[in-house]
Amino acid sequence: MAQEQVKVVKDKRITWKEVKRQKFLLIVSFFMVVYGTIFYYWPLTGWIMAFQNYKPNRGLLGSKFVGLAKFQFLFEDATFIQVVRNTLAMGVINLATSTFMAILFAILLNEIKSTIAKKTVQTISYLPHFLSWIIVTGILHDALSSSGIINELLLKYGFIDQAINFFAHKEYFWPIVAFANCWKETGWNAIIYLAAITAIDPCLYEAASIDGAGRWAKIKYITLPSIRPTIMILLLMNVGNVLNAGFEIQYLLGNGLIKSVSDTIDIYVLTWGISNNDFSLGTAAGMFKSAVSIALIVIANYAAKRMGEERLF
Amino acid sequence: MKKRKTSLADKIFVVCNTLFMIAFVVVTLYPVLNTLAISFNDGIDAVRGGIHLWPRKFTFKNYLTILGKENMITAVYVTVARTILGTLLALVTNALLAFVVSRKRFLFKSGLSLFWVITMYVNGGLIPVFLLYRNLHLTGTFWVYIIPGTISAFNMLVLRTYMNGLPDSLEESAQLDGAGYWTVFVKIISPLCKPVYATVALFVAVGQWNSWFDAMLYNRLKSEYTTLQYELMKLLSSVMNQSGNAANASAAGAANAAITPVTVRSAASIATMLPIVMLYPFLQRYFVTGLTIGGVKE
User: Fold this and answer.
1) What is the maximum alpha-carbon separation in chain A?
2) Nearest by CB: A32 against B151, B210, B217
3) Residue A48 carries which DSSP code?
């Protein structure tokens, strides 16, 4: 132990010889840090705008400071409260449904005995992940239009007497987004769960079979508990992304009739910041989003620690 | 293992599971195949609906229309260029960064890692980033697609995890023979990293190919830097604006030589998804391993 420590200390000592030997690594690092500072850290200085009445021609240094006025405006703006609600709701619904679907799909796919069938289904399941949201939105729009397949089937089997205009009613929007998300990502998200299932010791299943366990019992008592750490880690990683779940599809599918349920924080930032040129307000809203995301991930991590689960850091 | 008689419950399970998988495949494939059918169908005829897996009134016109559309050829050039250039640059820079932070003896190993991991959770947001690109004179140029997003902490982590898994002895023996770090990177580490390089290249290439938001935000007024997905997005909005008023759409279509945007948009969708759809099944082996290694162990 003591010897090991000495060795570590020796390795850590920065000698001129070591620096020269690592010249290549140091040069690369230097450029990486410069790049990272410009493109990832420098924009953080823009957060100052949230506390100013930012005017592009005056710049960050010349603009007038207004304290928390922009944040006050945000929290008094009913639209902002609405977009926060929409973003959170869709983020949580998407996270829950897509996690559930990915686990379900991974477990059921693993139960298929034929290798060819398994491979074929899996390959098909990745397809939607590679399509852009533009294409997915177009497909969705076709399927849900008044002459689309959904209305056609519903009419044919007598569930409705008149085609539903799915994009004109608020109650359909969140489920549509959740469905689109599942349609696009289930196969892709299942990759990691499938890998976790494959890593389970086959002896466990054999022992269970000898004890007379059926398929269902094996899933419940072996597969699910075994992939629990993977599920927890992925949930934790995604909790911080809950607020990021809302831009492309909402922007593309939203329309005047359903704005109050479809607009998200990102759309709000875009509208105020870019279209209305209020950079300060857009920055403040974006900052709020960042802060909530970080808070969420810290809280989730803490909760996982308290419950004795896996954690991120 | 002794073969046991399958119980009734297990048989029911197998039947239900098979039905679930069939339903899954149908739900996944039907919309895509339906789009394919519509893309080969006559425009006015398609407005009537009821086209499923086969076109009713076959035509190539929709594809000819998109070829003749203003900006389309430019969009193809720009998209191909950004995909190739962006992927190459991202691969080289992320691999170099991952190589550096995965060297056991590197002096700033953990510091540099942390510097990048932080960027995954904290970012300036849309407006400060927009202003930065404008100040750097990146907006209104092709380079706004290439330079800003090149290094990403996520891709770096996937690569780093893979490189960390390679035995140290490889590097040590090469260095005993007098090889510097650059030689180790090019001659020893990179050839072993082909699967994870393929994975990251696929991630970046798909991202580049499918992006439209940067074209809209930074190059809205520069039609010479438009991208395929952005053109597709414009087609999509024109369809959505017309929907709910089929009569209007068909009247506009009649005036426009039998072409309504629905079929044209379908054709454009199929054309833009084709390269990726043809490519990804062959890269499957790579991205599955790459994602699993990078994701589970990290």
Assistant:
1) 83
2) B151
3) G
Q: How far apart are CA A239 and CA A245, in angstroms?
A: 10
Question: Do residues B258 and B126 both lie within one domain?
Answer: no
What ipTM does the predicted assembly reach?
Answer: 0.87
Chain B interface, best mutation among A11, A25, A49, A188, by max B CB count within 10 A? A25
3-class SS letters over B93-146:
HHHHHHHHHCCCCCCCHHHHHHHHHHHHHCCCCHHHHHHHHHHCCCCCCHHHHC
* pTM of the model as a whole: 0.88
Tens of pLDDT, residue by residue over A38-51, are: 999 999 999 999 99
Q: Answer yes or no: do B269 and A135 touch at CB < 8 A.
A: yes
Q: Do A206 and B1 touch (CB under 8 A)?
A: yes
The reply to whether B140 falls in a domain is: yes
Q: Name the token pair of A222.
A: 């072996």
Task: Delineate the domains of chain A, giving CATH numbers in brackets.
Answer: 15-65 (no CATH), 69-306 (1.10.3720.10)
- pLDDT digits over B47-82, tens only? 787 888 899 989 988 899 888 888 889 999 999 999
Look up the domain containing B15 and give its range.
8-69+243-296
Which residue of chain A comes nearest to B239, CA vs CA?
A: A138
- At residue B281's C-alpha, the angle toward residues B280 and B282, to 5°, is 90
How far is Cα B219 from Cα B130, in angstroms, rounded to an integer? 12
